[in-house]
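Same chain as my last thread, 493 residues:
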Amino acid sequence: MIKNFINGSSISYSSEKLSVYNPSTGEEINQVVSSDDKDFQNCIDSSKKAFLDWSSVTPLKRSRILSKYKNILEQNTDNLSKIISEEHGKTIEDAKGSLSRGIEVVEFACGIPHLLKGEFSQNVGSDIDSWSIRQPLGICAGITPFNFPAMVPMWMFPIAIACGNSFILKPSEKNPSCSLKLAELFSEAGLPDGVLNVINGNKRIVDIILSSKDIEAVSFVGSTSVAQYIYKTASSNLKRVQALGGAKNHLVVMPDANLDQAVDGIIGAAYGSAGERCMAVSVAVAVGDVSDVLVSKIQEKAENIKVAPWLDQDSSMGPLISKDHKNKVENFIDIGVKEGAKLLLDGRNLKIQGYENGYFVGPTLFDYVTDKMDIYKSEIFGPVLSVVRVKDYESALKLINDHEYGNGTSIYTSDGEVSRHFTTNVKIGMVGVNVPIPVPMAFHSFGGWKNSLYGANSIHGTEGINFYTKLKTTTARWPKSINSGPEFKMPTN
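reply #2:
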């Protein structure tokens, strides 16, 4: 059974268990503990004790441990990628790619001595100096989704820990093993016991985290409905919160675009990782007379996507995470047909020999989708691509800006003026130009607008540094030999 990782050891008190399945076969492959109050208290006690010592460790020494951790992660890439693929189902190359993006955040966090440098002003008043510093919060927590069991946790805990906090990670109960391995490897790199603890479970443990008076900040990535719940509940318990929610990412194809590049971008972004990405392209916006040829090229390439378990090296797309999620995605396809969209490719009832009980849904393509349809409005989180046809650029921009989600978007064009107007005026947090998945690098920050992000801070980058620290400003003057007496007015220059 998969236990918790607390104070450097595998441990759990609860006897309750949750099943972990192989998405390719539908078989139970393990069980994970569903933690209780005693498990959580053990976790909190460990985190409290660790914070007292870790927060006093110099940023340079923290950086050296992070640097060693980065090297150990790179040495364990194959093993970690295998763990990801076994429990999630994504292809091994996709697992490796997502792991690399997580390691980049560790690499960014290695620069913490520079990133924590404050500001200094001399003579803000007569013989008065002022300076600011950023200090750790205390115990921080991260609640992470199933779709990126390495990358998303590493968006959080390396930066929080680099800033001097202790961190409690609650991974998805659907694929918990990777998070435990990440914590074990951090200990191997020299991280003191209790600085990073991993606690497993379901909504019960989430609610305990959100209400705990000992936790200062909560980071979350998941669906919008859960993000809203996390934000409201944690905020009402006076915590700092960053909660990243759902998405409906549009990719606009202008008539002057390099069409082959646009199609390749759409195919990879729509169907990669079986569409289980918050940055997946789920809407292709065909502008003007490019529509017919664009749809034809998308259909031709999508028909040739190989769907297979991750063990097949030629696989481009694996299964969905669970039976329930498979049913949800297939239900959306049913809805799209009833709403009148033209179904060009149907991924329902896909069966793979030897894996008939796996959670596979094939590439699905709808044409003539409108903004009134539920398949357009809702985040499906599966390999379902909708094509919306619009008459001109202005209509495309309005379509995107009117949507409730504001996570990511892209435009394919050869026109610099159109590109500049789009990047300036589109109401989306992450924007790509001739790039299908505009995920920022670790030294920038990841976050959407509207119903895709709740809280003041995006995740990782300098936004992450600000989120996991509190600002302190000191104003000082050394006393003179002659006391001029008390002042009762607001000090000025």
